[in-house]
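Hypothesis: this fold can be encoded by more than one sequence.
Test: take the structure tokens below, design a sequence, compare later.
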């Protein structure tokens, strides 16, 4: 894929083609990392692609609350116990949690083992597996411990999406919608017209959504890999995420899937952007409508309060010099990072969304 330092393979049936995976497992030793849900579906297929390669395996529990240092240590321990060298390849087979934890383990083991990402959820295929962010959560906030570490390749087999339940599929669509909001108004309009096709897993529609999302992420990451650009750069990919991560951390990663939290965060960012005088009522209505058509929640869980938001939001990694920075919208297709947001407006948004309970999970 263009603008990426490594290949991103997207298509149906890729897990049936050894020519895609095998060239990236160079040392003849692989540590296959998956979880209890995904492994029974696809692990044997991946093993079959590796031929005479020596394959070890770690199966993690499923769920965001297992994205921890303990899970990462299980992978490190398995690598060490099996006397794997630095030329071993860690293969992350699963959703965003597996990819993040396995990627962090690969980054740390002997200061950098090989890494291949095989994302099996829509959210991971369009976002988590591309770009090299790896890490685990901490009680104080989401993704507080981690590293930037790029894989050798990403293999996104769209056939794996047929194994997803509908809730997981809908959650992935939140990240797809995000790309239209931050940098591609035309793509956002296409999503408005094709949401029904995506929900029924139309192959052509999914391929376009995944491909377009990955192209956008690859271009942003290539320009600002480690989120250093003062004007925003890679941080723009976090539209809605400061709100979302606060919800996830405050509720112990149990109440919402990540994509569901992002959907609520997108609406909150749009609301604050309107209060800042940037986004018009018509644009906000379009964002509310597409989130509703995707079947995603429109408000935080009932347990969230203004105080909880204000406690966890400052722990966001975009904060600089003690100032919380937010990604807001100037219009559909254009976003910016701001540290001088209206504090009263932010509180008004938080009060509105914690009081209205518009379809929260």
């Amino acid at each position: 894929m263009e603008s990426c330092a490594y290949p991103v393979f997207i298509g149906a049936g890729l897990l049936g083609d050894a020519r895609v995976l095998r060239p990236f497992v160079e040392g003849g030793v692989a540590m296959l990392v998956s979880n209890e849900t995904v492994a029974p579906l696809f692990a044997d297929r991946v093993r079959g692609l590796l031929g005479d390669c020596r394959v070890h395996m770690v199966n993690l529990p499923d769920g965001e609350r297992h994205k921890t240092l303990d899970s990462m240590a299980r992978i490190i321990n398995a690598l060490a116990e099996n006397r794997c060298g630095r030329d071993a390849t860690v293969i992350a087979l699963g959703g965003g949690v597996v990819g993040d934890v396995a990627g962090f383990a690969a980054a740390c083991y002997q200061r950098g083992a090989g890494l291949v990402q095989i994302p099996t959820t829509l959210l991971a295929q369009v976002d988590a597996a591309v770009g090299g962010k790896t890490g685990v959560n901490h009680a104080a906030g989401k993704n507080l411990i981690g590293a930037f570490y790029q894989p050798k390749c990403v293999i996104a087999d769209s056939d794996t999406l047929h194994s997803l339940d509908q809730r997981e599929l809908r959650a992935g669509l939140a990240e797809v919608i995000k790309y239209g909001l931050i940098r591609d108004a035309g793509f956002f309009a296409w999503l408005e017209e094709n949401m029904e096709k995506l929900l029924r897993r139309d192959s052509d529609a999914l391929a376009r959504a995944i491909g377009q999302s990955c192209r956008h992420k690859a271009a942003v990451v290539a320009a600002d890999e480690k989120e250093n650009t003062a004007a925003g750069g890679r941080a723009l990919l976090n539209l809605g995420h400061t709100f979302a991560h606060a919800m996830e951390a405050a509720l112990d990663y149990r109440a919402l899937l990540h994509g569901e939290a992002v959907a609520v965060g997108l609406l909150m960012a749009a609301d604050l952007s309107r209060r800042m005088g940037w986004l018009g009522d018509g644009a906000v209505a379009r964002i509310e409508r597409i989130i509703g058509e995707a079947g995603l929640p429109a408000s935080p869980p009932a347990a969230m309060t203004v105080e909880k938001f204000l406690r966890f939001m400052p722990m966001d990694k975009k904060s600089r010099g003690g100032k919380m920075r937010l990604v807001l919208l100037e219009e559909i297709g254009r976003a910016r990072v701001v540290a001088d947001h209206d504090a009263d407006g932010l509180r008004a948004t938080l009060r509105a969304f914690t009081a209205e309970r518009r379809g929260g999970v």
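The first strand starts at residue 8 and ends at 11. The radius of gyration is 20 Å.
Hypothesis status: open.
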